[in-house]
């Protein structure tokens, strides 16, 4: 299905660019030339370069976005498509959006991407139409590879502001940290009077972008789970013990059936959340978006764990890249789109509904 969608979703050049980006080996380092090709082909602005609003565009592109999870693609692809592009488009700032389209690599502090996150500890001081930022952001993903970082700061009066910082500018420093996912660099961003371009984005537009990013992460997670189902079925069909394929053993059948079940439940939940989001673009249905985040994150994690178990008999799961899917799943479910936080919000929503029904 995704192969048939690639040529029709955009022009042939763009389809080839995505295939080239996805053709990299699991765990490979980010290739700036390949990233620029992907950007110039229009894939990073997939959801904003249409006649539809971003929420209305998501349901139609969900099957295509699942392709992002088939390989552990290095670089902030999901973040660029689901968060950076919608925010830059909403801000109306031509220069940062042009930079994204030209292949500059954007990332975002967790205070920007995380739902219900406070502005953080960065102070923004107005200066000649810009802001001078002072403070620190920790656990910034893809910091080593990025050219620009979206940060959320507070003015001296406490009002929140979204700004774009160029990492090569004066007053910026980075401290890199080890990550459980080798393809995702993390680190701390230290700002000491760094110049930043303000992005005029309302709280409603920020919420919309966060919901969009969550659903793109869901599609990526579902794609990862589906790919692991495909790989595992192929392996257990070929691998033989005691004169028969190990896929014929009941214990293995049950594991694969569970992988398929959680993947299809997550896919259905993502479709439901995206269609309801499209019907209510100004007020994201957070209970549905959070339910999708929980289902998709759980599906990817469980599929990766079951795949490792089914491949375990060969003794070479490391060479199959399964651990890369598992590592990316753990990081995506915590740092990028926090599954536990989404589950807590769902519990609060359920308690509130129960209380109102009394």
UniProtKB/TrEMBL annotation:
Q: Which InterPro entries match?
A: AcylCo_DH-like_C, AcylCo_DH/oxidase_C, AcylCoA_DH/ox_N_sf, AcylCoA_DH/oxidase_NM_dom_sf
Tell me the classification of the organism that encodes this protein.
Answer: Bacteria, Bacillati, Actinomycetota, Actinomycetes, Frankiales
Organism the protein comes from: Pseudofrankia inefficax (strain DSM 45817 / CECT 9037 / DDB 130130 / EuI1c) (Frankia inefficax)
Question: Which superkingdom is the protein from?
Answer: Bacteria
Which SUPFAM superfamilies does the UniProt record give? Acyl-CoA dehydrogenase C-terminal domain-like, Acyl-CoA dehydrogenase NM domain-like
Membrane-spanning intervals of the chain:
none
Which terms in the Gene Ontology molecular function aspect does this entry carry?
acyl-CoA dehydrogenase activity; flavin adenine dinucleotide binding
| Keywords assigned | FAD, Flavoprotein, Oxidoreductase
Report if keyword Flavoprotein is assigned: yes
User: Where would I find the Acyl-CoA dehydrogenase/oxidase C-terminal domain in this sequence?
Assistant: 218-348
Concerning its family, UniProt says: Belongs to the acyl-CoA dehydrogenase family.
Under Pfam families, the record lists: Acyl-CoA_dh_1 (PF00441)
* Cofactor annotation: FAD
Identify this protein by name.
Acyl-CoA dehydrogenase domain-containing protein
| UniProt entry tagged with the keyword Flavoprotein | yes
């Amino acid at each position: 299905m995704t192969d048939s969608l690639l040529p029709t979703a955009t022009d042939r050049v763009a389809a080839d660019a995505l295939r080239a980006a996805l053709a990299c080996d699991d765990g490979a380092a980010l290739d700036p030339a390949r990233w620029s090709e992907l950007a110039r082909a229009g894939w990073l602005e997939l959801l904003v370069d249409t006649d539809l609003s971003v929420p209305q565009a998501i349901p139609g592109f969900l099957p295509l976005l699942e392709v992002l999870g088939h390989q552990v693609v290095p670089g902030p692809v999901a973040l660029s498509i689901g968060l950076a592009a919608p925010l830059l488009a909403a801000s109306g700032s031509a220069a940062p959006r042009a930079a994204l389209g030209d292949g500059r690599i954007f990332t975002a502090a967790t205070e920007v991407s995380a739902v219900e996150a406070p502005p953080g500890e960065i102070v923004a001081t107005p200066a000649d139409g810009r802001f001078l930022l002072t403070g620190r952001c920790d656990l910034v993903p893809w910091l080593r590879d990025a050219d620009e970082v979206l940060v959320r700061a507070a003015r001296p009066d406490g009002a929140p502001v979204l700004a774009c910082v160029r990492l090569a500018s004066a007053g910026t420093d980075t401290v890199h940290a080890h990550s459980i996912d080798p393809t995702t660099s993390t680190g701390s961003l230290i700002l000491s009077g760094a110049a930043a371009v303000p992005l005029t984005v309302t709280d409603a537009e920020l919420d919309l972008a966060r919901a969009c990013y969550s659903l793109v992460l869901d599609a990526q997670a579902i794609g990862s789970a589906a790919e692991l189902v495909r790989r595992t079925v192929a392996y257990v069909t070929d691998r033989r013990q005691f004169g028969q394929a190990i896929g014929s053993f009941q214990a293995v059948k049950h594991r694969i059936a569970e992988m398929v079940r959680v993947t299809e439940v997550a896919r259905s939940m993502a479709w439901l959340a995206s269609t309801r989001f499209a019907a209510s673009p100004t007020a994201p249905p957070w209970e549905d978006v959070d339910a999708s985040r929980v289902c998709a994150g759980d599906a990817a994690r469980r599929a990766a764990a079951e795949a490792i178990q089914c491949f375990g008999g060969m003794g070479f799961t490391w060479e199959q890249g399964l651990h890369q899917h598992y590592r990316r799943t753990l990081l995506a479910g915590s740092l990028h789109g926090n599954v536990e936080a989404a589950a807590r919000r769902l519990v609060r929503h359920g308690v509130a509904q129960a209380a109102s029904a009394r």
